Amino acid sequence: MATSSPGHPLRGRNTPAWRETFLAALAESSNIAGSARAAKVTKSTIYKLRREDAEFRSAWFDALCEGYDNLEMSLLYRLRIGELEGTKTKARRKFDNATAFRLLAAHREAVSQRKAIRDDEDEDAILASINTKLDAMRAREKAVQVLIAQDSPGSTVKCPVSTIESGADDAD
Rounded to 5 degrees, what angle do the CA atoms 61, 62, 64 make? Predict the structure, then answer.
């Protein structure tokens, strides 16, 4: 099999025809054996390609993650509406509360982690903004000192930076 490394002249020509079918089925089902059957290829063939081709390996894990997301959505739907139990005339909805609580607990942890990451990003942005403002203030102070030095080279009078930054005029 030709390599699939970036820039290789055979790149794209050696992509197996079954690859997209396999990945689509995997994203739908999260089932490797079933996805291999759908793509009409053996599991050993797909595992071999996964070991040898980093791009395929990455696409495999992306499809698997999508499949687990689909599975979670299906489970959430079933937990929300319940499952019909009994006969058509005496059907009643049964809810699996234990699973629902476990799923909520797992989801709550994931949401908390995401919020913590977002808060850290916000904190970093605030600190960066403060540092940028401080740098600008230092640059203005330096520029003012240069202007004062150029304006009166023999003068020993110092102009306070705060009056210039606040917009006040010099009263000489």
Answer: 60
* C-alpha to C-alpha distance for 58 and 4, rounded to whole angstroms: 13
Confidence of residue 159 (pLDDT cuts 50, 70, 90): low
The pLDDT tens digits of the residues spanning 45-99 come to 999 999 999 999 989 988 888 888 887 788 778 778 877 777 777 777 777 777 7
Burial class (CB in 10 A: 0-12, 13-18, 19+), 37: middle
Where helices occur in 11-160 by DSSP H, the ranges are 19-29, 32-39, 43-52, 54-81, 97-151
**Which residue's entry shows tokens 């000192």?**
145
Amino acid letter for position 64: L
Judge whether 35 and 69 are in contact, CB under 8 Å. Answer: no
Under 8 Å CB-to-CB from 50, ≥6 apart: which residues? Answer: 56, 57, 60
Does the predicted model carry a pTM greater than 0.90?
no
DSSP 86: S
Contact 4, 14 (CB under 8 A): yes
Q: Which amino acid would we find at residue 46?
A: I
Helix (H, G, I), strand (E, B) or coil at 84: strand
Per the prediction, the chain carries an average pLDDT of: 77
Q: State how far the Cα of 94 lies from the Cα of 34, in Å rounded to an integer.
A: 30
